[in-house]
């Protein structure tokens, strides 16, 4: 459940989320806000980082973190779709507490890293999932010559 804290087999605490922290991180980067690790720890202690778009009242008693994505941090509100250059999903039914911590760390960094984010107009949201489009963006980012895809 999003916002719930679970304990990994290594003893490390994990928080389950949807794409909310990615949108929050993107909005913060876009506004030139930079956080230190100490800042992030403080924000976590204050439950000020969103881990869910929305919650149901029946879920709240099981959630450690109840903060939801605000309208100002939701890129969908002004008409954008946040996409990822590298996949962030786990695509497995294995319980999180059993997945190797290294793999979870990689996926978490990809989820939160603004360098792995791009936006497309919301009405073109599906374009952000097309492998050829993402490959073209990677080529452009790497200094390659873009141009085989035109919109």
Descriptive account of the structure:
- The chain has 151 residues and is an alpha+beta fold.
- The chain has one domain.
- The chain is built from five helices and four strands, in the order E-E-H-H-H-E-H-E-H.
- The protein has helices at 20-30, 37-45, 57-60, 101-112, 131-141; strands at 5-7, 13-15, 80-84, 117-121.
- It is globular, with a radius of gyration of 17 Å.
- The mean pLDDT is 90.
N- to C-terminal distance: 38 Å
Q: Which stretches are low in confidence, meaning pLDDT under 50 for 5 or more residues running?
A: none
Number of domains: 1
Shape: globular
Strand order of the largest sheet: 1-2
**Coarse structural class:** alpha+beta
Helix content: 25-40%
Mean pLDDT value = 90
Strand content: 5-15%
Main sheet summary = 2 strands, antiparallel
Question: What count of helical segments does DSSP give?
Answer: 5
Q: Could you give the order of the helices and strands? A: EEHHHEHEH
Task: Please describe the topology of this protein.
Layout: E1 5-7, E2 13-15, H1 20-30, H2 37-45, H3 57-60, E3 80-84, H4 101-112, E4 117-121, H5 131-141
Antiparallel strand pairs: 1-2, 3-4
């Amino acid at each position: 459940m999003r916002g719930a804290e679970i304990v990994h087999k290594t003893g490390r605490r994990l928080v389950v989320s949807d794409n909310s922290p990615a949108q929050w991180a993107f909005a913060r980067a876009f506004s030139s806000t930079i956080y230190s690790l100490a800042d992030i720890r403080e924000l976590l202690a204050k439950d000020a980082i969103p881990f869910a778009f929305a919650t149901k009242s029946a879920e709240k008693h099981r959630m450690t973190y109840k903060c939801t994505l605000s309208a100002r941090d939701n890129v969908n509100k002004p008409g954008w779709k946040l996409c990822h250059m590298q996949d962030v999903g786990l695509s497995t039914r294995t319980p999180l507490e059993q997945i190797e911590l290294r793999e979870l760390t990689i996926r978490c960094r990809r989820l939160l890293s603004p360098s792995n984010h791009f936006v497309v107009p919301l009405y073109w949201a599906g374009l952000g999932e097309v492998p050829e489009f993402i490959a073209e963006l990677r080529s452009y980012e790497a200094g390659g010559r873009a141009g085989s895809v035109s919109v």
